[in-house]
Amino acid sequence: MKKILFLTLVLIAAVSFARTPEEKSGTINILKTLRGESEGMDSEILAQKRITRPSLPYQYDTPEGNFKIHYTLSGGDAIDSVGYAHKIGDYMEHCWSVFTDSMGYLPPPSDGALGGDGRYDVYLKNISAYGLTYPGTAGSYPWDNLISYIEIENDFDGVYPNDDPDGPVAGAMRVTVAHELHHAFQFGLYGSCAAWIAEMSSVAMEERLYPLVNDYVWLIDYMLDAPEMPLNYGMGYRMYGMGLYAQYWNMVYGDGFLATVWDTMRILPDEAAVFAACELYSTELVEDLADFAAQALFVGSRNSGFFPDGEDLSDMSVSRTHTSYPAMGNPSPQPYGYGMSFTIFENIGSAPVDMAINFDGADGIDWAVRAIWKNGDSTVVFPIPIGDFASGEIRVPFANEAEMIGLAVVPDGGWTSRYNYSYSASLVPCSVAERIAPERIALRTSPNPFNSAVSISIDGHTAPIDAIQIYDISGRLVDAIELQLKGSPADDNRSSCFEAVWVPKDALPSGVYYVRLPELRISKPVLMMK
Ligand SMILES: [Ca+2]
Ligand SMILES: [Ca+2]
Ligand SMILES: [Ca+2]
Ligand SMILES: [Ca+2]
Predict the structure, then answer these.
(1) Which end of the chain is less congested by CB atoms within 10 angstroms, N or C?
(2) In this structure, what CATH number is given to the domain that contains residue 448?
(3) Residue 150 belongs to what H/E stretch?
(4) Residue 484 half-sphere exposure, CB side, CA atoms within 13 Å?
(5) Which of 81, 131, 143, 139 is nearest to 114 (CA)?
(6) Structural domain ending residue among the three candidates 406, 434, 462
(7) How confident is the model at residue 441 (pLDDT cuts 50, 70, 90)?
(8) C-beta separation of 292 from 315 below 8 A
(9) Ligand 1 centroid to 188 CA: how many Å?
(10) In what order do the strands lie in the sheet with 511-517?
(11) Which ligand lies nearest to the CA atom of residue 421 in the structure?
(12) Same domain, 348 and 468
């Protein structure tokens, strides 16, 4: 059984990499050419496309009034029926309304009379990508902004599989609209934006707008394969993989974080906008990236359930997995500033022990370091305090009860330099009396998917939990339920069980909701199908 599973995983990975991100969104080549970087689209072709719109005979104006969808019913660019144009229009209006109404983005600048009138133009054509957003001339906002138009595939012939309940063509249409329309908003807020922040944002918008489709999952491999590269790495495809980091922002801070980054782009470019958003959310980028790293380590075969699609992702690359102690190392590849580096400690044994971890980073820069105790669905993150000589130590209690302990390291140095560090880990006698045990908290939901009610139980948490919160996918709190203590604390005196039943209000639509324990910062997606 295990062997078959392994073979299946290998096959999926092989298929994934047969596909390139340019086939999904050709906008990356445009962004690179705009900034004079290599590997982009031919600059003469782009110059032509920026001023000359495609010519298609028919137009469909969406009833909400924001889009004109251009199409043809004959020749190589033909769509199968006008219904295809209507669907694209529906998805465009849905994403437009979420971006502008729920998230507070400024709409892209008007293109005047181009394409027929001031509506945003979308052209359905037989293209070699799922979609492309072409920036045009300067827009009317008083900052560096560009008007734009979008081209979308006419039939998604040969579409790659995805998880959309309405089939892969509908899924591809939906996530292409979310991804490309976000690029259109980006051009309106900063016409010269860097590809890395543009692509990581657009990838996250696919999951944010259409969480059931999961067409982005294979893109995350490009980050999982190269965690050590800096956040703003602009070559190759790693920037798509960082879509998982933007997804983390959406989950932890809500929609406001990315909206703040993009709104700030009007006055501060790229990296500076991300620093500014972190400051506004009372964190520092290096600390925030380390908190993300502490969760991103546990996807794939190490999945902890933090990310909704965590088990469908590949494993995070780690510098080393230790199975005997004491252990030490000097990780290679060394991480860049604002890159991530990981080590795993397994096979800790059953005798009660703590794990003492020492860290020593290159002097002269700041480091953000996390030790993560992990067992099943439970993770407990221990920030390692860093002192003189960029070194620090921590004791992770009850190491023997962990399935593994992870070390996640992020240097706060220059984006183009690598930084050296060393660590050591040893098993030391358990000092139970002085310490609080990491809690093996399990948040369970059943049935999932559900239609009228879902039972929620929490095992293994000692302190009383007052309530659980239910969020919809736009990050809106839709309900809060009180928890009941079930039975008495179990015999080891540290474990108890709370439970509740959530009966959604009639007005709530089918879709994904998040069950969240606010005190513990854990959440779990549930799917309501009425
Ligand atoms: Ca127009
Ligand atoms: Ca086609
Ligand atoms: Ca998903
Ligand atoms: Ca040092």
Answers:
(1) N
(2) 2.60.40.10
(3) strand 146-153
(4) 8
(5) 139
(6) 434
(7) low
(8) no
(9) 14
(10) 477-482, 467-472, 511-517, 522-528
(11) 4
(12) no
